[in-house]
Write a structure and sequence with these properties.
- This protein is α+β, with helices and mostly antiparallel strands.
- About 40% of the residues lie in helices and about 20% in strands.
- Among the domains are: about 50 residues, Carboxypeptidase Inhibitor, Chain A (2-Layer Sandwich), CATH 3.30.1040; about 160 residues, Up-down Bundle (Rhopdopsin 7-helix transmembrane proteins).
- It is elongated and about 105 Å long.
- The longest helix is centred in the last third of the chain and has 35 residues.
Length: about 600
Amino acid sequence: MDQSIDDDITLTVSDTEATLDVTTNETINTDSPAKSQKSTVSTQKSLAFTSSTTVSLECNSDGKYDGQHGIKHWPPVSPGTDSRVDCPGRVGIGDAGSGVSWKCQLNGQFSDEGPDWTECGHWLDELDNKTESIHDIAEAIEMIETISNRTGKSDTIIDSQRLSQALDIVSKVQTFVDTTATTSSGTDTDSNLCAIECYTSKMLDTLANILDQTYAWTNSTTDKRTSMAEQILTTSQSTAYSLALRQNLTTNLLVVDNSDFYINTFYVNTAAAAVELTFPYNNPNQTSIVIPSDTEFANNTVRRTNQVVGAIIHNIGDYLSDNLEDNYEINSYILSFSMTNDSQSVLLNRDVIISLEHKKRLQFGDKVQCVYWDFAANQWSDRGCITDTQLSDRYHTVCRCNHLTNFAALMDVSGRERRTVLKSALTYSCSIVSIVSLIVAINLIVRSRHCFINSQQSRDNSLNEMRAIITTNLCVCLLITNFLVVLGMDRTDVVWLCRLSSGSLLYSLMSSFFWMLLEGFYLYKSLVSCFNWQFKARYLYAVGYGLPVAIIFVAFLVIYCKHNIVLEALFDHRYSYFCWISSTHYSSHIWILIG
């Protein structure tokens, strides 16, 4: 008898229940001399069960999209449908149920293109319509405060067109304030000054919030980003200058700042004796600019006013870097200084000194140059600026420029020394081989020294002991040098440890040279003097370890008299890239070792 079984299985899955249909066809062949019987038995079984594990592809079922694009909560929806909410700050316009929609894709993720805002009216449209009807500074403050409150959180504006519209509204308001500040500057009162100071603070908060709309900035075109960044530069300068116009001798310095802007406005009495100007006021150690007392405009047609404005702007340099080559980046905040309310650079009769603090510490091989933003060419330019390499260091770049405008430090990283896997492997493998070989050599020399002492006569013992002492101490110095090169050469983050490593490396190398000198002296005595020579071990140690101390002491005494530094000669974090005595600023210190 032959028996075969064929199974047909059908699985039906719903959201909460799965049904398994199994059809079994059983064929039985019966062989007998009389007849052959074949029968088929069909059995169908239906098994139903409820799944205990729920797999959901709904978008935002875990709430991870909540808060994005300025929407507090996106309702979870199934793939292929839209999640819809009312427009922020108002109900949707048009047909019932209109608002913001965001497409849920089949993979359970919302579309990367972002929400669709076309059905929504926008609060910026309402503000834009009101800009033509501003009558006084109070209304200007109210409008700017509205934008500031609306953009208080990042990515509340996700469309580049809306971001540009917000900046246009801000510029229109500022144009009104410029007009009122110019026409009423002669009749300033304390209340007017207080109002314009409040307006300036609100304006800077608004511009800082606009800079925080990273989603809209990132999804803007290159030209659009550059245009909006330029608009922020000119608007912030114009805002500060409006404040400066309200100043007088009783309020000769005002400071307004927030997370992205720091502004000083000065009132300078041009009728009195000229004085040196420093911005920021009484803080020349960070990003700063110094205007010599006898500075005048090279063009006699440009008149110097009593109002002077300085600003430091954060987080805007990246939006002005799209035209830079890949190996270049802006490595400082933007420093702006103006004696006129003009975005164009104005030539001076002498250089001003500019110090730009780096956002990133320079690495070995980096080059920095001083640049300014050329509004006419829409790009960074170094015309009229010279980098003072003697005063610059890894944390600051010092420039001398013959004009005033918006300055920054442009870093070229194309020559940066980059650590690769091959370089690291070669360094560590070769150093480890040297360290192991030196340890083996020291061990063999010490063992052989005892053997020679026990087997040779006194004259030979003296020479053999001398050779063993010299070679052993030379190997020890080289062993320490290898350890320091591998473990301590690039530990520049801890200053005291780096200086200790630098000093130890200098001493071990100098000691190695003197033990090599003693090795040569030993060969001379053994070959020329025919072994007729006696020595004392303490003289060898005095030369091998004592003379390096004396030379280093004299060298550091000279350095102190010349540069008035001691520990900085071992390592100066401002100029040194490695834990070693030589640096870009103190390059002559290497003569301590060479000499």
